[in-house]
Each structure stands twice: as structure tokens, then as C-alpha cells.
Amino acid sequence: MLRDDFGLDNCLWVFSGRRGVHCWICDPEARNMTNEMRSAVTQYCNIPGVGNEMSGKVTLQYPLHPNLRKAFEYLKDFFEQIVIKEQDLLSQPRHQQNFLKYLSIDIRDGVMKKWATLKNEGEKMWAVWKQAHEEWKFSAANAKYKTAEKDLSYEELVLCYLYPRLDANVSTGINHLLKSPFCVHPKTGNICVPFDPANVQNFKLAEVPNLTMVINELGQVKERQSDDTAVVPCLEPYLALFKNHIKKCDAN
Questions:
Q1: CB contact at 8 A, 118 and 128
Q2: Are residues 121 and 200 in the same domain?
Q3: Could you report how far apart the first and last alpha carbons of the chain are, in Å?
Q4: Cα–Cα distance for residue pair 85/108, rounded to 1 Å
């Protein structure tokens, strides 16, 4: 959205040090925005409740906004692989209850009875959910008053779990406190390091440098050389990425 709809492409992605991601938008147009302009961009990209599966059922309006339709078409291909297979969320009772919210009341009991025989087998439970949903949509499409075209339950489910949850306050307020790249997260001790979004699947949380690692390596480096240009080994790849981004910004 930032690139295609607003023409912003100098984006530096930084791990927050805990469980979030920061996107530093370095384009001059973005840096010169007022609070009102930043709020407008944030509202355009944000959907209250979406991206937070614990906030209750997400409800979308028909017709679906073109941006949301584009987001759904992209995310739906990852939903089964990530949410169902890798994270196996349907094996957890609280997520089972959340999935049921996206089915009509009259077919929930049947799904729950079938689920009870599967003993939290996530992928099989997903197959039951999908079949029930398809039957529901087929019935609605053939009803006297057609409502299938307004059924966005599958879109709601996918966007609820995979659409990013944005921190609007950080994004809209120029005077909001921000953590700079390479600062230390006060609770985890992790370093807020940049990462390449095109290679995010190889970003391992367990390998993120922390304060203890930096202190230990810095001591070892200073034992070998006395000048102040020493680079801590665990930070080297992240510093290289950061410097490359600066060069890109300067070139543009």
C-alpha cells in the first residue's frame, strides 16, 4: 500500500526487540507530513480489530474495499499453510471458539460435534470448517433472498489472523516516543536490529543480538584493538544492511 498507493519506497524494517516490527519510512514526503496527513495514511492502511484475533469477531462491510480485497487475495494463499499447518491454531480450544464465530449459528453445532471426534487434530478440523462454510454459502446462494454475495466470513477470518495490526498512535503523532534502530529493548535486552523483509523467513528471533552478547563481544574486540572503529561481530550483518539502506536513500 505504501509503495503502490502513496509512492513511498524508502522503508527500513526494524525488529522491535520483543514481538513487533517498526517500519521507518525515510522518503522526504513522509518525513514532512503533518499529524493530520499521517493520520489519514494510517487510517487508510488500518482496520480496527483486524490483525488481532483476540479482539473479538472482525466484521467487514460489503462491498469489500479494493485494498482489503487485494490484501485478502494475497493473504488467503498463506492462511492454510501458516495458521492451520505451521501454527496449528485449530488444535487450541480458544481458537476453535474464535473460528466458530465465522459460521452461521445453525451449522455450528454440527461442526462442534464433528470436531469432538477429532481430538484437536487441526488440519482435519479445518477440513470440517471449510466444508461447513461451503455448504452455508451454497444454501445462501440458493435462498429466496440471496445473501451469499454479502457473505464475507472467510475474508473476515483470514484478515483477522493475517492482516497486520498497526499501532496508530506511534504512526500518527510526530512527538510520539520512538525506539531508534540498534537501541536495546528495556524488557528483553534484545537489540532492535534492521532486517530484510524480502528474506524475513530466515530471520530467527533466537539469533537476534542482545545486550549481553554485545558487551561480551565488545570486550573481546577491545582486547585485540584499541581504536574506536571496532565493530561488534554479532552486529556486523545488521549494520551492513543499515548502511546499504542509507546509501539507497542518499541515491534517491
A1: yes
A2: no
A3: 20
A4: 22
Model confidence pTM above 0.90? no
DSSP state of 233: G
What string of DSSP letters covers 161-214?
Answer: HHSPPP-HHHHH-TTS--PPTT-B-TTT-BB--EE-GGGGGG--GGGS-BHHHH
Distance CA 5, CA 1 (A): 5
Q: All 3 cell numbers of residue 13?
A: 524494517
pLDDT in tens, 145-169: 555 557 889 999 999 999 988 888 8
Helix (H, G, I), strand (E, B) or coil at 130: helix
* Residue 179 in domain: yes
State whether 102 and 154 are in the same domain: yes
Cα–Cα distances in angstroms (integers) from residue 24 to residues 40, 109, 169, 236, 249, in the given order: 17, 47, 15, 20, 12
All cell numbers assigned to 238: 545488521
Give residue 35's domain range.
Answer: 2-46+166-211
Cα–Cα distance measured from residue 62 to residue 199, given in angstroms and rounded to the nearest whole number: 35
Contact status, residue 100 vs residue 108, Cβ threshold 8 Å: yes
Q: What is the 3-state secondary structure (H, E, C) of 56-99?
A: CCCCCCCCCCHHHHHHHHHHHHHHHHHHHHHCCHHHCHHHHHHH
Whether residues 147 and 179 fall in one domain = no
Q: What is the mean pLDDT of the chain?
A: 88
